[in-house]
Write a structure and sequence with these properties.
4 helices; about 270 residues; Adenovirus Type 2 Hexon, domain 4; Jelly Rolls
C-alpha cells in the first residue's frame, strides 16, 4: 500500500531550516516539494527566480549529506531524468501569487539503523515575498527498491579555456546511472561560447564517453514548454541506466571550456 505523510503544509520559508528528522517506519520512495510565493513590486520574477528561493535541499543519513541540490537542479532531475513535468504559475503583477508544484526528490530508501533528515536552505529574491514551502513523503508498506538514490553536487570552475581540465575524479560506493551537468554559458543566436564546450568521461582511466555540447543534448529529453526550457536548456543528462557504471569504478570527468564560468556536475548514484 502506498502512503503519504505531510510534514510542512505551506510553512513560512524565510530562513534556513534546522535539520528535520524523518522518523522512518517504512520504505520512502520520494520527498515531494511545493513552493508558494507572492510578487512584490512591478517586476515579475522568472521561474528560475522562483526556484532559487530553494537555495539548497540537503538529504542526510546519520548526519552525512548524501544529496544536495538547488531548486533548479530538482526541476532538472524531474524533467530530464524522470521525464516528468511540473506545475507552475508565474505571477505577473504586484501582490500576485506564484506556485511551483509537483517537484519530487528521489529517495528509494528502505528503513534501517540510519537517521534520515532533511534541511532546506533559503535564498532571498528581491521580487518575491511571503514565501512558503510544503514537503511530504511518498511511502510504501513494501520495500520497492534496495538501492537508495544519492546525488552529491560538485561545482567546478575551469582554470583555463581551450583544453580539457579534470572537473571530477572519484569513486562511488554505488552504481552510477548518470550525470546531470549544468553549463553556465550555452550557445545562443548571437554567440557560440559554451562553458561545457566538450565533455569527456573516463572509467578506470579509459575514455568511455566524449562529445561536444550539441551531442550531449541529443541524449537529453527536453519538454516543449518554453518557460521550463528557460531553466533546463543549461542542463544535459548523461544517461547510463541501460549499462550503469559498477560501484567502486574510478570515474574522471574532464571539461573543455570556452570560458571560466562554473560547471555543475551531479552524479546520480544507486547505493
Amino acid at each position: 500500500m502506498m502512503r503519504k505523510r505531510s510534514f510542512w503544509d505551506k510553512n513560512d520559508f524565510t530562513k534556513d531550516s534546522d535539520d528535520i528528522q524523518i522518523i522512518q517506519p517504512r520504505y520512502i520512495e520520494q520527498i515531494d516539494l511545493g513552493l508558494q510565493l507572492k510578487q512584490t513590486g512591478t517586476t515579475s520574477p522568472s521561474l528560475e527566480d522562483m526556484l532559487s528561493i530553494l537555495d539548497r535541499v540537503q538529504v542526510k543519513l546519520t548526519g552525512k549529506i548524501v544529496t544536495e541540490l538547488k531548486g533548479r537542479d530538482v526541476l532538472a532531475y524531474n524533467c530530464l531524468v524522470e521525464n516528468r513535468s511540473i506545475k507552475y504559475t508565474v505571477p505577473a503583477g504586484d501582490t500576485q501569487y506564484g506556485y511551483v508544484e509537483g517537484l519530487s526528490l528521489p529517495l528509494k530508501l528502505a528503513p534501517g539503523a540510519h537517521i534520515l533528515s532533511v534541511r532546506f536552505l533559503y535564498n532571498s529574491v528581491s521580487t518575491i515575498t511571503d514565501t512558503k514551502l510544503s514537503f511530504s513523503t511518498l511511502e510504501s508498506d513494501t520495500v520497492l527498491s534496495r538501492a537508495m538514490i544519492q546525488m552529491p553536487r560538485y561545482v567546478f570552475t575551469p582554470p583555463s579555456t581551450g583544453a580539457f581540465n579534470t572537473a571530477l575524479d572519484s569513486t562511488f560506493s554505488g552504481t552510477l546511472i548518470g550525470f546531470l551537468v549544468y553549463s553556465t554559458t550555452i550557445p545562443t543566436t548571437s554567440a557560440t561560447t559554451t562553458t561545457v564546450s566538450k565533455l569527456r568521461v573516463k572509467i578506470g582511466g579509459d575514455i568511455a564517453y566524449e562529445d561536444n555540447w550539441q551531442g550531449l543534448c541529443s541524449q537529453t529529453f527536453y519538454p516543449e514548454d518554453s518557460t521550463l526550457r528557460s531553466v533546463l536548456d543549461n542542463y544535459v543528462f548523461l544517461d547510463f541506466r541501460k549499462d550503469p557504471v559498477p560501484a567502486g569504478s574510478r570515474i574522471e570527468v574532464q571539461v573543455y571550456s570556452d570560458d571560466t564560468n562554473d560547471v555543475i556536475i551531479i552524479p546520480v548514484v544507486q547505493v
